[in-house]
Amino acid sequence: MKKNIVPIVSIVVGIVAFFLTLNYIRSREAEIEALKQEIYAGAQQIRVMAAARDIPSGTVIRADDLGTITVFSSHVGNLAVLPADGEMLIGKRTVFSIKALEPVMWSHIEGGMVAERGLSAIINPGLRAISLAVSGPAAVSGMLQPNDRVDILGTFTFPAKDHPGEMESVTLTVLQDVTVLATGQQTAHQRAAARDFGGRAAGYSSVTVEVTPREAEVLTFAQQLKGSLTLSLRNPGDVSFERNLPDVNFKHIEEKLPELNERRQREIRHKRNI
Known about the structure:
Layout: H1 2-40, E1 45-51, E2 66-72, H2 73-76, H3 114-117, E3 128-132, E4 149-159, E5 167-183, E6 186-187, H4 188-196, E7 207-211, H5 213-224, E8 227-233, H6 250-268
Antiparallel strand pairs: 1-2, 3-7, 4-5, 4-8, 5-6, 5-7
């Protein structure tokens, strides 16, 4: 009988020791997790661009190579590529390999380090950046953001066509569908970084746009005339182009207002019997 009890007691002791050990391990895991939560309680998390798969060095990046992940800002500093700049990676070549789900850093990209190189790094080849002195209502009440697209309107004083020797104010559309590169001194990267680190976007009194060299000449000339420029914000998916927009003066407003209002009700508000 005693011989049978000894193995049973050993088994029971082993089971008790197993559960005690398991409970200890679980309690330690809970303590470690609580400690991690305490350490990271005040840490800032941000969304950054990441590799959707392993990307070898020398790869020309495509859209399906990329995704986004959430990381602690302290882990990536200001070198991680933010989602606002994600499109800038397309077509760029990697200089280092990037593992799947690893944050994409500007140092991974040929010609990267946008934050340090400034505005010139984000201008597309063949185009130019030019700043326009616009603010307040003329800049959509300060609500423009880098990467927005706008139409540029100008109001100028010209010699009257119908009354020689007299001057008249004329408003016309100078350029359509123009990309905003920066508002004040903030590019998309800098604006997003300020937001992700708890800051606010700074106010601005100028807007920098991306144009062709010929368009840059037109805008430079337009800014020298006695008048003002106004930006009209577009929907990001709207790539339409309006042909033959008229020059607007007092005579045009007087004659065309009824037609403009009827067109709005019929084509925009879709009202019948107009």
